[in-house]
Amino acid sequence: MRRLFRTIAAAIVSAVLATTAQAAEPYRAPRTALGQPDLQGFWVNYSLTPLERPPATPLVFPTRAEEEAFEAKARKSWQESESGGLGQGSPNGTSTIPRRGSTGA
Question: Residue 48's closest CA among 21, 75, 12, 15?
């Protein structure tokens, strides 16, 4: 009985070591057919964090009060845009989307 237990234990240890040795390859991110990183997945647009820093923005860290003021401003802006209704523009009558043919100025 002991011999059977040792044999089974040795087989299990061998199997674990063999799979660990195979899994030791470094991670390689998936790529598209053109060799670019494959960024397909589930993306959302309701984050307060911009993907890019606005031009000429210094690399400084805001205080807690500045963070809260920014979040309150962003929350208010989002609520105002949501309360305008689909295709209705902002509540004050100005649209945030430029009209066709306008320069945006």
Answer: 75
